[in-house]
Inverse folding.
């Protein structure tokens, strides 16, 4: 229908059909439709209202010459506009043909944010996310999503600080927008308390979160179990909303989503030029990395809308985080435990422990229980690797092992991974990009 209308447009307004075009009238018509469907349809609605042949107003002889000169000027402007649009279209097509093909394995918070950063910052790359599971079936969906990183002694503090700072700034800007609750983001204030004071009384992220301070004695009375504590305002980013939003943002940037399990990186040889590995705990089987292990976490979500502040035990063993539509209670930290089913004895222990800090929880009712496996490693793996096999080489970028801080670090590590992809792409530009699959 639209194509027919477009043809009518070109016949009615012949100055817009470029004679001698290699693509011919039909090709041009398609080009015009794809560039301006609304303009084409809208313009023709006006013509359709006037009948098959658009009627023109009748002008007197005195102003006929003026009319002709105006029409010529309009024709010249339209022709110029169309030439410039056509040039842009051809340039875009040329760019697409020459794109570096990037596959991101994983659709958790790390994979999707990495894919968005690549798609939005590297126009020379096309991005496809390949994942066995998408939201709501990832570990990221189970995360409470509070922005509060755990210190990793084996990772330079400056690096952790940068990742957290970048993530905080990104989520902060979402929190300022009208869409914040739809995206699962909100500010949250509360107390982080310790039974024994921590070694570092002031954490490295104290000046990144807002209004950080050490709790005074009067506040500590609120928690008889604690001897020390911090109060601060941070952000919470609930992945049940945030991941679908990232998926949309990726699609808007031209990226693609594909369901599938990758059992060997070489399956992707020839189909993609750079592979970005964001497979969370899946990276253990995929890379053979025995330094990566799961730390099982079980949570509850309850209805307790009267709770407005978070309470978190400094070691992360117990937490109460009021989210947008529920309060998240946790949790467990069971190393090397691959069980994905809800354990009723864990449920009981979590609820009891949280009630000890917030007795009013006894009035709440349970909405959801879930389990996730934190992909844990002494040092998060964010680096390039080149695999070689039978004269072929494969460019990899690893971004996994975020442990209990994946939401807190995701945007910072995604930006750094995108930079590594850019470096690999620059290297590949000197080599033939398109190869035949070996499988
Ligand atoms: C109970 C709990 C509470 C938490 N709370 C917080 C918190 O408050 N704040 C915070 O910062 N962090 C928190 N975390 C940690 C956070 O959830 C993780 O660090 C984060 O989700 C890791 O994200 P990811 O994208 O690396 O992994 P995942 O979310 O597990 O995603 C991995 C993706 O890779 C895919 N995949 C794996 N293997 C393959 C394969 N072979 N082929 C194709 N696809 C594959 C999976 O299908 C999935 O799409 C919490 C974790 C848990 C369990």
């Amino acid at each position: 229908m639209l194509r027919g209308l477009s043809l009518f447009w070109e016949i009615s307004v012949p100055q817009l059909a470029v004679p001698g075009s290699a693509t011919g009238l039909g090709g041009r018509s398609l080009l015009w439709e794809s560039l301006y469907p609304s303009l084409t349809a809208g313009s023709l609605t006006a013509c359709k209202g006037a009948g098959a042949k658009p009627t023109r107003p009748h002008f007197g002889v005195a102003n006929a010459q003026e009319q002709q000169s105006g029409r010529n000027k309009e024709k010249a402007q339209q022709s110029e506009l169309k030439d410039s649009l056509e040039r842009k279209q051809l340039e875009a097509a040329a760019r697409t043909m020459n794109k570096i093909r990037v596959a991101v394995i994983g659709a958790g918070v790390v994979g999707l944010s990495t894919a968005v950063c690549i798609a939005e910052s590297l126009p020379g790359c096309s991005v496809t996310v390949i994942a066995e599971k998408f939201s709501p079936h990832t570990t990221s969906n189970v995360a409470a999503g509070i922005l509060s990183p755990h210190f990793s002694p084996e990772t330079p503090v400056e690096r952790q600080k940068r990742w957290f700072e970048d993530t905080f700034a990104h989520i902060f800007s979402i929190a300022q927008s009208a869409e914040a609750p739809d995206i699962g983001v909100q500010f949250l204030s509360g107390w982080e308390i310790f039974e024994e004071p921590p070694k570092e009384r002031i954490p490295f992220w104290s000046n990144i979160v807002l209004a950080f301070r050490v709790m005074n004695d009067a506040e500590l009375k609120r928690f008889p179990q604690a001897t020390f504590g911090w109060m601060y305002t941070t952000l919470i980013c609930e992945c049940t909303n945030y991941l679908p939003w990232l998926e949309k943002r990726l699609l808007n940037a031209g990226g693609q989503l594909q369901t599938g399990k990758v059992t060997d990186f070489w399956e992707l040889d020839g189909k993609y030029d750079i592979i970005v590995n964001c497979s969370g705990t899946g990276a253990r089987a995929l890379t053979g990395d025995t330094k990566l292990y799961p730390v099982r976490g079980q949570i509850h979500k309850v209805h307790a809308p009267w709770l407005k502040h978070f309470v978190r035990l400094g070691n992360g063993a117990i937490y109460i985080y009021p989210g947008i539509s529920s309060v998240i209670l946790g949790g467990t930290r069971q190393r090397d435990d691959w069980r994905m089913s809800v354990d009723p004895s864990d449920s009981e222990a979590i609820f009891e422990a949280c009630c000890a800090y917030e007795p009013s929880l006894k009035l709440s009712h349970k909405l959801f229980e879930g389990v996730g496996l934190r992909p844990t490693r002494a040092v998060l793996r964010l680096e390039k690797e080149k695999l070689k096999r039978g004269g072929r080489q494969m460019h990899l970028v690893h971004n996994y092992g975020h442990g209990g801080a994946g939401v807190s670090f995701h945007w910072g590590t995604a930006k750094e991974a995108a930079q590594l992809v850019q470096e690999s792409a620059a290297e590949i530009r000197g080599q033939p990009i398109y190869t035949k699959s070996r499988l």
User: Anything to note?
Assistant: The two ends are 43 Å apart (CA to CA). The chain has 13 helices and 15 strands.
